[in-house]
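Progress against Task 2.4 (sequence-to-structure conversion) is shown through the following example record, which the project officer requested during the mid-term review.
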Amino acid sequence: MDNNSLVRQILAIQQDPNLTEAEKARKRQQVMSSRWKPEITQADDPEDDEASKQETSGNQEKEAGKGQQGILEESLKCAMCMDLAARPITAPCQHNFCLGCFNRWVSQGKRTCPTCRAPFPAKFAANPRINTALASVIRSAKLGIAAPAAKRAIARPCDEERPDEAFRTDRAVRSGRANASSGRIMVTVPGDHFGPIPPEADPRGLGIRVGEWWKDRLDCRQWGAHFPHVAGIAGQSSVGSQSVVLSGGYEDDLDEGEWFLYTGSGGRDLSGNKRVSKTQSFDQKFENMNKALLISCQKGLPVRVVRSHKEKRSAYAPPEEQPVRYDGIYRIVKCWRKPGAQNFLMCRYLFVRADNAAAPWSSEEAGDQAWNEDIPEAAVKEINAAKGTVYQIAKDAWWAWNAGDQAWGWSRDPPASQKGMPGSSSQQDPAKQLRKQASGHEKALRNFACLLCSNVLQDPVSTPCGHHFCKSCLDNKFAGMGEVMEGKSSRTMRVRKVVKPCPGCKADLADFVKGASINRDMAAIIERLQAAMRACQAEQSQDAPGSQPESATQAQADAEANADVAAEAEADAEAEADAEAAEEQEAQADGSAGGPDELDQAEQVDSPEALPGAAVAEASGSGHSSQGPELTALCQEFGEFDQVLIASLMEDQGGDAIEVRHYLKRMRQTDGAGNQDRKRARCAA
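Structure tokens generated for the chain above:
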């Protein structure tokens, strides 16, 4: 290529208005290196164009997945190799380098920073410290990015051909649960699904039918009838209960098939290593799982009921050949609290069946009919003996009888799920992905904490010993300390430097503090991480209000539950006040039964002339009006003490007469013991 053609090509590149400066520079470089070729259009080679599109899309996906590593690569490049710092160190001038690059730089006899030409201290050049905060942030960012794996065709067995459980011979000793398929959820409903399991959620296309049974609770969990494999109640205290299990856990349970009385959870001491206990230790309250059942009662939500063969007192329990059986949908029509068999208050719930399928013990072909609001006699007796509020199902229940279809069903849309589908990944759940991103940024920010204030670094400074502080915190730490110590003698030729120890390792920072500068790279990283975390939190807060709407029924349930708690607290406070009043009356009776001297002192205390100025002011109500009668009573009860002392104690304790009475009783006991000791000493003499 001759010079004339070279000049023409360069001028053509320079005059092309469609090219940016970077593209012009790249094309000029290609021309100068004699490797310039005309661009291949899509009509010339469509295969290459398709390959370039795939490469471009792959690069875009890679750029989109950079995350924290993209933030770090812009700020933590080594000034020597221009790559992301490996084993980063921070110089006193606050520039970052790779440890290997720095050692090679120093071994060549270069003792100045390649960026700002600031000299390296001899101690730092001989023994540089790795910046562990930057190293941990870089490591966590790299771990959070998964490298794209190559696509390979792998032959996998079809799910239809895979058995539900492992093959087990008659000679097997163990149950065969130790395999990959054990415990996997078969249905595709979330853990907080209300109502029956539909056919579309069942891989068999049948749904969970009434009368279906499993050999244990783990299999029952796999098919979604009742997800907890130990607890008897499944639910959330803010949403409601999805399912319960009747397994004979409480002696107060009463099972009559189409309806049963169910006992809530709690009230038993499970401290230590105890999983179960048959003894009630305290009252049950409408909280946790009991509150979930209460919300299901007030809203009229459907509850799946599973019966276990362990319920020995019920005629409707399944036989041992069918250990765990699904019996359909029930509704909680009433709930209350009453003393149980062990005289503690128990949360009680009346369940009534409301399913379109016939019960396993029924000979009828049709399911349950509309509820006529009849309450069984056993439940009426308990309701009459109930303590506190009796809750009942709402008129507009969520699961109700449809007169047009002559069937049970939803009268409104079922509650939205707060949990994802089984096996859903964070890529399918945007809210979970935002929470994960915000958590990652917050975790990265925890590595940038000041050793003095324990907050995120503001104007960070990295010391030669490898610790990090806020600029203001470090200045305040050594504020008021000079640079040299003043000599005590008249000789001033010998000057001693003031040692300024590092708060982290006690290394001397006197020379470093003189010209300490801010680590701009670290400050930029912190600022970008904070901005990214705020953006994730803002998106998450925008999605939060619409995702979980709060209903008026839930608010009413919370208000009633809080009212019960407030009533119990008020009753306890009244009982405590009565006990204190009885104690005070007893103390006054003891004081009035004293000798003539004490009566004379009491009469003197009653008169305003006998009280000093401060005490009279308190007793007459010139001070705190509520302390007047209490102060007078204390002066009458403890006449041997000065009234000014009692008034001062009342003022110090904020008018708490009970606390002052305890102090005075203790002082009286101490004085009595001292008098006895002096009397013994005189007798011995």
